[in-house]
C-alpha cells in the first residue's frame, strides 16, 4: 500500500477521533463524509476513550507478509464505551486468551514495517486490563 | 421483462492449471458454452473477474476475452464485486436479455490465481484497506471472527464447522471438475494446521485457477439451442457495510438475507420450495451463516445442518452438491458462474453421481468480501 495515503488517516488512527453526527447523534468511526444512518453531512469531533471490550476475535497463524515476524497474533473487533468499533491487535498476553468480553486498554504502538523500505506504521493495539489494574 | 433461460454451459476443470493462462481458461469455458448450444454468435459478454490486475497484471478483460474468442466487435466488459464477480456477471447478463436489449449473451467468470501473485494480499483488497488490512487481518481472519461470534451467540462448535468440510468433500469426490476430489474425516479437519483460529486449513477453500461460462437467451427462443433449457426465475442483489466491525451482529450476513428476500420475491417462491442449492462456502462458517440467511435453517441452527445430513445429498435440501468452494475449488471471480452450472446440470438431470433426485427448482448464492455483497439466483427446469 502506498504510504502517502496514511497522512489522511492520522486524526482517526493516531488520535482516536470519531465524529458524532449533528443530525441524528450516531457515532461514526473513523469519520466519513456522510452519516450511514441519516445521511447527514455535519459531524462534531469526539475523542474516544482509550479502552474497549472485545466483540469477536481470531488468532492469525498465516499472516500477510508485513506481519510475518509477529505470528501467531490475536486480532479483535473491539468496542469503546462510546460505541465505536475498530479492528485492533491485542498483545502482551497469550493470544488464545483473547476472547469476546475481554477488556483492553488501547495503546499507541508500532504495527508493522511496510514493504522493502520498512516504513514504520503506527496505530492502536489492545492490551488486556488486569482485574483491579 | 422477458423470461430468460440458460441454454448452454462450459467450464474448465478447477485446480492449479500451470499450462493455462487467464485467456486460455476463458476461451475453453466460453467455447464449451457456445458449442453445447450450437451457437456461433453473441450480442454481449460479461466477464466476472475479481482481480486480473493484481493476479496477472491484466485489466481490460472485456476486449481481451472477446478477441481471443474470435469475436472482437462484440460488446464485452469485466464485472467486479470481489468473490461475487461471477454472480454479478450472471445478473447483468440476465438483465441484458430480460430487458430486450440483447438476445444471446455469455455470462462468464475467470480467475488465474496461481501465477506468482501474493494471493493473501490480493484477496485482502476485498476488505477495508485502511481499517482492517492495516491491522494485520487476513480473509480467513475475518471469517474466523464471524465464526467466533456465531459460536459465542449460538453455541456452534468446531465440530459443526468440520462437518461442513466433510460433507462438501464427500460431494466433491464425485465431481470430475473438482480441485480436491477426495473425502476428508472430521478428525482430519480438526487436526489440520491452524490458519486463523478457530479456522483450520481444511475449513478454507483453496487457491484455484478456472473459468466457467453460461449462455443466456429469451425463454421463448431457448428451443433453438437446446431441448432442456433452465429458466432463471429470479435474481436478487444486495450490499452491506464493507467493514465487518460496522455490522451490528458480525454473525449475521445481512447482505445475503436481503439478496435472498429480493430473489424469492422476484421468483414468487420461498426457501421451502428450493430443492438443491449452491452456497458460498469460502470458509466452513460461511455455509452455516448463508443457509441461515437463505432461510434453509433457523437463525443460530445452521451449525447442525451438515452433521444431521439435512444439507447432504439425499437430505432435505442438498447444499453444494458440486463439492462447494471447499472441495471443487474457488477461482474467486469464476465461482458465481460455476455455481449456476451445477444447478443447470442438476435441474437437467445431468449431475451423474451427484444428482439430487427430481430437483425442479434450485438456487445459487454468491458473495464478496466478508459478506459485503451478495447475489442470489433462483432457477427452474424449463422443459
Précis, in short:
The complex is a heterodimer of chains A (133) and B (383). Chain A has 133 residues and is mainly beta.
Structure, explained:
The complex is a heterodimer of chains A (133) and B (383). Chain A is 3% helix and 43% strand. Chain A is mainly beta and 133 residues long. Chain A folds into two domains: 40 residues; 79 residues, OB fold (Dihydrolipoamide Acetyltransferase, E2P) (Beta Barrel). A five-stranded antiparallel β-sheet of chain A has the order 6-5-4-7-8, with no helix packed on it. Chain A has a three-stranded antiparallel β-sheet with strand order 2-1-3. The longest helix of chain A is centred in the first third of the chain and has 4 residues. Chain B folds into two domains: 133 residues, Peroxisomal Thiolase, Chain A, domain 1, CATH 3.40.47.10; 232 residues, Peroxisomal Thiolase, Chain A, domain 1 (3-Layer(aba) Sandwich). Chain B has 13 helices and eleven strands. In chain B, a hairpin with a 4-residue loop joins strand 10 and strand 11. In chain B, helix 7 crosses helix 10. The mean pLDDT of chain B is 97. At the A-B interface, strand 4, strand 5 and strand 6 of A face helix 5, helix 6 and strand 5 of B.
CATH C-level label of the largest domain in chain B: Alpha Beta
Gross morphology of chain A is globular
How many structural domains in the coordinates of chain A? Answer: 2
Globular, elongated, flat, extended or rod-shaped: what is the shape of chain B? globular
Helix-residue proportion of chain A: under 10%
Mean pLDDT across residues of chain B: 97
Key words describing this protein structure:
heterodimer, A: OB fold (Dihydrolipoamide Acetyltransferase, E2P), 3-stranded antiparallel β-sheet, 1 helix, 43% strand, B: 383 residues, alpha/beta, Peroxisomal Thiolase, Chain A, domain 1, 2 domains, two-stranded antiparallel ribbon, 11 strands, 34% helix
Amino acid at each position: 500500500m502506498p504510504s502517502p495515503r496514511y497522512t489522511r488517516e492520522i486524526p482517526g488512527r493516531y488520535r482516536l477521533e470519531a465524529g458524532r453526527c449533528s443530525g441524528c447523534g450516531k457515532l461514526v468511526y473513523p469519520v466519513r463524509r456522510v452519516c450511514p444512518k441519516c445521511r447527514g453531512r455535519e459531524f462534531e469531533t469526539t475523542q474516544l476513550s482509550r479502552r474497549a471490550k472485545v466483540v469477536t476475535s481470531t488468532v492469525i497463524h498465516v499472516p500477510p507478509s508485513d506481519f510475518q515476524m509477529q505470528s501467531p497474533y490475536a486480532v479483535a473487533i473491539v468496542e469503546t464505551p462510546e460505541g465505536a468499533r475498530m479492528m485492533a491487535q491485542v498483545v502482551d498476553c497469550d493470544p488464545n486468551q483473547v476472547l469476546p468480553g475481554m477488556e483492553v486498554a488501547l495503546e499507541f504502538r508500532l504495527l508493522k514495517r511496510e514493504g522493502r523500505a520498512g516504513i514504520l506504521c503506527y496505530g492502536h493495539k489492545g492490551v488486556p486490563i488486569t482485574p483491579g489494574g | 421483462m422477458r423470461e430468460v433461460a440458460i441454454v448452454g454451459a462450459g467450464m474448465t476443470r478447477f485446480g492449479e492449471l500451470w499450462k493455462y493462462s487467464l485467456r486460455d481458461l476463458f476461451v475453453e469455458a466460453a467455447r464449451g458454452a457456445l458449442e453445447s448450444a450450437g451457437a456461433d454468435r453473441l450480442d454481449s459478454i460479461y466477464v466476472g473477474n475479481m482481480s486480473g490486475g493484481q493476479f496477472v497484471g491484466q485489466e481490460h478483460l472485456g476486449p481481451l476475452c472477446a478477441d481471443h474468442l474470435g469475436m472482437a466487435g462484440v460488446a464485452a466488459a469485466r464485472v467486479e464485486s470481489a468473490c461475487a464477480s461471477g454472480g454479478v456477471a450472471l445478473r447483468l447478463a440476465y438483465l441484458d436479455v430480460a430487458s430486450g436489449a440483447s438476445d444471446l449473451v455469455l455470462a462468464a467468470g475467470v480467475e488465474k490465481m496461481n501465477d506468482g501473485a501474493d494471493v493473501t494480499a490480493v484477496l485482502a483488497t476485498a476488505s477495508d484497506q485502511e481499517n482492517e488490512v492495516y491491522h494485520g487481518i487476513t480473509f480467513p481472519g475475518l471469517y474466523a471472527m464471524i465464526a467466533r461470534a456465531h459460536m459465542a451467540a449460538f453455541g456452534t462448535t468446531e465440530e459443526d464447522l468440520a462437518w461442513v468440510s466433510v460433507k462438501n468433500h464427500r460431494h466433491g469426490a464425485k465431481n470430475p471438475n473438482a480441485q480436491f476430489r477426495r473425502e476428508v474425516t472430521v478428525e482430519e479437519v480438526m487436526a489440520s494446521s491452524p490458519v486463523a483460529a478457530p479456522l483450520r486449513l481444511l475449513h478454507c477453500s483453496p487457491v484455484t485457477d478456472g473459468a466457467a461460462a453460461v449462455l443466456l437467451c429469451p425463454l421463448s427462443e431457448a428451443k433453438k439451442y437446446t431441448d432442456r433449457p433452465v429458466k432463471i426465475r429470479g435474481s436478487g442483489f444486495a450490499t452491506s457495510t464493507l467493514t465487518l466491525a460496522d455490522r451490528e451482529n458480525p454473525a449475521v450476513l445481512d447482505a445475503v438475507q436481503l439478496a435472498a428476500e429480493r430473489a424469492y420475491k422476484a421468483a414468487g417462491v420461498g426457501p421451502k420450495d428450493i430443492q438443491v442449492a449452491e452456497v458460498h462456502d469460502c470458509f466452513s462458517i460461511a455455509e452455516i451463516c448463508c443457509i441461515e440467511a437463505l432461510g434453509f435453517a433457523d437463525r443460530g441452527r445452521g451449525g447442525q445442518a451438515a452433521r444431521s445430513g439435512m444439507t447432504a445429498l439425499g437430505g432435505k435440501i442438498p447444499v453444494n452438491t458440486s463439492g462447494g468452494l471447499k472441495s471443487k475449488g474457488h477461482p474467486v471471480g469464476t465461482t458465481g458462474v460455476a455455481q449456476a452450472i451445477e444447478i443447470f446440470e442438476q435441474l437437467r438431470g445431468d449431475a451423474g453421481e451427484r444428482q439430487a433426485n427430481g430437483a425442479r427448482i434450485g438456487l445459487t448464492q454468491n458473495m464478496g468480501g466478508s459478506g459485503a455483497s451478495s447475489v442470489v439466483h433462483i432457477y427452474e427446469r424449463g422443459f
